[in-house]
Amino acid sequence: MPKSDINSLSIEEAKKELDFLKSELKRHDNLYYNESNPEISDAEYDELRNRLNEIEKIFPNLKSLDSPSQKVGATVGTLFQKIKHEIPMLSLDNAFSQDDMIDFIERIKRFLKLSDEYKFEFCAEQKIDGLSAAILYENGKLIYGATRGDGYIGEDITENIKTISNIPHQIDYPGRIEIRGEVYMPIDSFKKLNEIKELNAEPTFANPRNAAAGSLRQLNPQITKSRNLKFFAYYINTTNSNLKFHTQTDIMQFLEKLSFSTAKYAICHNIEEIMDYYNKIYQLRENLNYDIDGTVFKINSLELQDRLGFIGRSPRHSIAFKFPPEIAETKIMDIKVSVGRTGKITPIAILEPVNLMGAMISKATLHNFEEIERKSISIGDTVRILRSGDVIPKIIGVIRKSQNQVFRPPLICPSCGVSLIKYPQLIDLYCPNHYSCPEQAINYISYFVSKNCFDIIGFGQKQVIEFYKEGRIKSAVDIFKLEDYDKISPLSKKQGWGEVSVLKLYQAINAKRSVSLPRFITSLGIPGVGEVISNMLADKFENIDNLIESQKEELIETEGLGELMAEEIYSFFRNDINLNFINKLRSYITILPHKSINTFDKNNKFYKKMLIFTGMLTRMSRDEAKNLALSKGAKIATSISKNVNFVIVGENAGSKLKKAQELNIPILTEEEFIKNI
Ligand code: IVH
Q: What distance lies between CA 396 and its chain's CA centroid?
C-alpha cells in the first residue's frame, strides 16, 4: 500500500489503511512470537506501528479496542504455561553402522554380564522425524499435552494437542496414564501447506519437521488444526499409575488397544535381524507419507531396561540407528577464515549454492588446515559435501581439482592481527587474544545469548555485532546493563531501532535475568562443555559454588567426563578473569536452584555414602553395580582412604580389602550390597 501524507487521508482511506495495518501487525506478531520466523526487521515492524499510531492520533474515532496500539505485546517466553515432566523426556544415542550396532549389543552384554549364548529380544521401531510430546490422561480423559521442552520442563500445548485427529480425547483406561510419542506432519500436508504459503508469497518451511514444530507451537489452536498434524505413540510412563508392563511390545499393543496409532514395529533377536529390519525400513522410506530419519532398537524386557539405566541424557537400553546422510556436489568459490568464541581458527568454504535435503547450502566447514592439506583443497575445486541433521555441512572429498594452489594457513588472526598459536597437542590454530579480539568476543557473546544458553529472544549475532561495534557492549555482562545505558544513549534514536523494538529487546533480556544452572554452565563457554556435560555437572554439583570449588577428583567422578575435560573445567575456575566475569554476571542475574534428576531416597543405606568395589562380582558387572549405587545417591571412590564408608567385596579381593580391614572400614559382600540397595 503506497504511503500518503496522513493529513490528506479521507476518513475512508484512513479506515482502510488502519484495517490493513492491524492485520499486518497481527500477522507479524504471530510470525515473531509463535513461528520464531519473522519476515521483516524490527525497524520495519516499528514503522508499521508508528504509522498506525499516527493515523489513530489524527482519526481518534477510528481507534478500536482490538487495535495493536492498545497492547504492549505478548510477554516474551511466557506464551505457554510450563509443565514439569514426571520423568524426564530424554534422547537417544545414535548408531550409524553395523559395527556401532554390534558395539551397542556388546555394551549391554558386558553391563548386564550376559553370557554369549544369551537370546536377546529387541523391539525394532521406525524413528519418526517429528517432535516428541507427552499426553496425560486421568480417568479416561485427556488432561494435558506438553512439548519436550528442555527434557525436564515442557510447554503446555493441550489445546493444540486436542486438534490432532488421531489423538483420542477419551480413552478406555480408568487410571492415570501418560502417553509419549512423536507429533509429525504428513508429507502430503506439508507439500500442500508450502504451496499455499508460496501462493501468498510467505516463506515456506524447509522440511516437514520444521513445519510440524511451527504448527504445534501456535497460540491459536485453529491454526494448528488446519495444519493436519498426526501422532505416533511409542511409550507409556507408568509412574503414579497402577499399570505394569513386561515388554516394550506389550506397551505398543496396549497403545493400539487404547486406539493410538503406532508405526510398524517388529522383534529382532540378533545383528542379522537388526540389519534386515534396518534395510527393509530404509527401502520402505520412499513410500511412507511421513519422514523417518532412521530406526530405533529397544531392549524389549522392561526389567532389563531398568537395570541398564542411563548414561548422561540417554538410556543404555535403546539406540537410534540412523540412515546415512545425504550428499551433493558443488564448487568452492572462496575460502574464508573465522575466529570462534574460544579463539579457534576455522577455515570455511564458500560454495556455489546447492540444494541438499530441501535446504540451500552455501557454506561448509573445512575443520582445520591439516584437513585442507590432507585433502589438498583449493579454491575452484569441485567437491562432495555431506549434511546430517542441522549441523553445518562438511566437505568429504574433492571430485575435480582446479589449477589453483592448495590454500595456505594464515599467520595472523584475521580479526585482531595477533600472531596465531599452534599448541603442541592440538590440531587447530588459535588466536590467543581471548579478551580483546573482536571476532572472538562477538562470537562468544552471540553464543551467550543463543538458544542453549541464555536464549534471549530477538537478540542474535546481528545485534551483537551492532552493539559491539559502537561500544554498547564489550562483554556478555554488558547485556544486562543495556537498559541503564539507554538513559545515556537511547537506542531508539539509532537507525533501525524504534521504541517498540527497543522495548521488546529489554523485555526479552529481563525475562532471562533468572537462569537455570545447566544453562548458566553452558553459557560460560568452557571448551567442550556443551548442553549435555552442563546438565551432568549441574546434577552432580547442584549449585555453581560447588562447581567452582570442585576438585579434579570430583570432576573426574562425573559420569562421562574424561580426565582432560576435568582438567579443562578445573583450570577454568582457577582463572581470575573467569571468576571475575562470573561474579559480575551474578550481580545482575539469579541462578535458579537446581534439582538433579535423581530424587534420592534419603533412607537408603548408601545415600551420600562413599563406596568402593573390589574383587570380582558375580551377580552383575562392576559397571552395573556402580551405576546402581550412583542411582541411590552414593559416591564411588577410586582408592581406599578414611573417607570411604563401605567396601563391597567380590571374589578374590586383594590389597584393597586388606587396607580396608586395617582402616576398620565396614565391609559388605555382594549379597549384602544387593539386599541393602
Ligand atoms: S524412544 C529416551 N522411539 O527420537 C528417549 N523415540 O533421538 C526415548 N523418536 O526424543 C525415545 N521415533 O523424539 C523413541 N520410535 C521412537 C522414536 C523416537 C522418533 C524421537 C524422539 C526422541 C528422539 C531421540
A: 26
The CA distances from residue 576 to 274, 451, 523, 583, in Å, are 53, 27, 17, 10
Query: CA 471, 451, 234: angle at the middle one, nearest 5?
Result: 180
Specify whether the CB–CB gap between 190 and 158 falls below 8 A: no
- Cα 91 to ligand 1 centre (Å): 6
By residue count, the chain amounts to 677
| Residue 608 annotated among the catalytic residues of the structure | no
| Ligand 1 centroid to residue 127 C-alpha, Å | 7
Residues lining ligand 1, judged by CB closer than 6 Å? 90-92, 125, 127-128, 132, 182, 234-235, 296, 315, 318, 320
pTM of the model: 0.57
Q: How far is the CA of 234 from the centre of ligand 1 (A)?
A: 8
Confidence of residue 74 (pLDDT cuts 50, 70, 90): very low
Ligand 1, atom 16, lies closest to the CA of 127
CA 353 vs. chain centroid, Å, equals 27
- Catalytic annotation, pick one of 127, 344, 540, 656: 127
Could you read off the pLDDT of 452-486 as tens digits, one per residue?
899 999 999 999 999 999 999 999 999 999 999 99
Estimate to the nearest angstrom the gap between the alpha carbon of 300 and the chain centroid.
27
pLDDT of residue 75: 28
Given a cut of 90, whether residue 407 has pLDDT beyond it is yes
Residue to mutate (ligand 1; options 85, 89, 91, 92; most atoms within 8 A of CB)? 92
φ/ψ of 309, rounded to 5, equals: 60, -150
pLDDT of residue 7: 77
Side-chain-side CA neighbours of residue 173 (13 Å)? 24
- Percent of the chain, pLDDT > 90? 57
Alpha carbon 60 to its chain's center: 48
